Amino acid sequence: MFDEILDFNSDRELDQVEIQKLTKMTTKVEKWIKRYKSGDVKPNEAKKRRMGPPRLSRQAWLQRKVYDKDRELTNRLIALTGLHSDIITASENMQVVYYTPGGHYHAHHDSSDLDLNLPCEHTRHLYPKESHNNITATRLCRFITVLYYLDDTEEGGETAFPVADNDTYTMVDYQKDGRAVNPYDLSNYCKDANLIIKPRKGLAVMWYNHHINNTTGMLGEHNLFSLHGGCDVLKGEKWIANNWIALDENHDMQIKFHRKQLYGGNKARTGKSSSKEQVESGNENYVDTVKETKSNCNSRQEVVVSHPDATRVPL
Ligand SMILES: O=C(O)CCC(=O)C(=O)O
Ligand SMILES: [Fe+2]
C-alpha cells in the first residue's frame, strides 16, 4: 500500500508533497485498509506489486540465416556445448533483449518443469494430426541457455542466479544470511544472489536448465537452481542475446524434429510464436526430402549430449 498509494516517487520516504496529497487520499487509503483487513488483498499480490512488472525490456528475434550466414557462431556453439550439430542447428533463433535504466527481468526459469502430459513446444507440430488438434498447452523444453552480452553496461544490469549451488534452497521462507529474501525480486535483492555476472561485451554465459535422464540420455528433470534474471539497469543500456537449445525427453520426437527442421522443413523457426506458422505452412515434400537426405542423416551416427551426467544416444 505504501508503494502503491502514498510513495508517489517510490523513494520509500514521505515528503511534503506526498503528505499534502495524502490528505486528499484518505478515502482511497481507507478503502485499501478495509480490503487488507478483510483478507481481500493476498500477500502474493502485495509482493508482486512491490516487485513491479516481471519484465521491463524490449525483445526481437533474429533469424539464423541473417545473423550467422557462415555458421561461425553455430559451430562455436556446437564446440561449446559438445552437442550434436543437429540439436544446435534445429534450435530456436536468437533473441536480442534491450534494457534501459529501470529495465530488469525478475528471476525466472527459461524452461518448464518436466511434465509428460504436455508436449514440448518445439515438437508439438510433429504429433499426429488427431492428437495435435487436442494440444491446448505445451511446455518449454530448453535444455541449455547461452546468453551473450553484446555490450558493457555502465551500472547495474547484472545477470543474477539467486539460488545457484544452494542445496538448502526451498521456495518457502527463503533466507540469506539470516534475513528474509525474495529470490524472485531482482530489483530489491539482486546483491543477495549466489552468483552475479556483470555484463561485459563479448562475454557468453552458458547453463543447463535441466538434468539429463540417466536412462534415456535425453531431457531430464528441471534444474531449479537455474533460477536467474536480469537486475535493474542503473545507468546506461544493456544489450544481450539468448540462444536456447531445445531438447525433447523423447528421443524419437527430437530426431523427427531435426529431420523436419533441417532436411524437410521449408521455414526457419523463429521462436515460440512461430510453431503455429510452421504447422500451418505444412510440408508435403517431407517424405521425399527425407528420402533424399537420408544418407545425409545416416552419416550422423549419434546424438552426443554433453552434460555432467553425459551419455551417448544412438541416432
Ligand atoms: O538480462 C539478463 O541478464 C537475463 C535475461 C534472461 O534471463 C532472459 O532473457 O531469459
Ligand atoms: Fe532467462
From TrEMBL:
Keywords assigned: Dioxygenase, Iron, Membrane, Metal-binding, Oxidoreductase, Transmembrane, Vitamin C
GO molecular function terms attached to this record: iron ion binding; L-ascorbic acid binding; procollagen-proline 4-dioxygenase activity
InterPro entries named in the record: Oxoglu/Fe-dep_dioxygenase_dom (IPR005123), P4HA-like (IPR045054), Pro_4_hyd_alph (IPR006620), Pro_4_hyd_alph_FE2OG_OXY (IPR044862)
Cofactor (UniProt): L-ascorbate
Domain Fe2OG dioxygenase stretches: 90-247
Any single Gene Ontology cellular-component annotation: endoplasmic reticulum
Name of this protein: Putative transmembrane prolyl 4-hydroxylase
Species name: Stichopus japonicus (Sea cucumber)
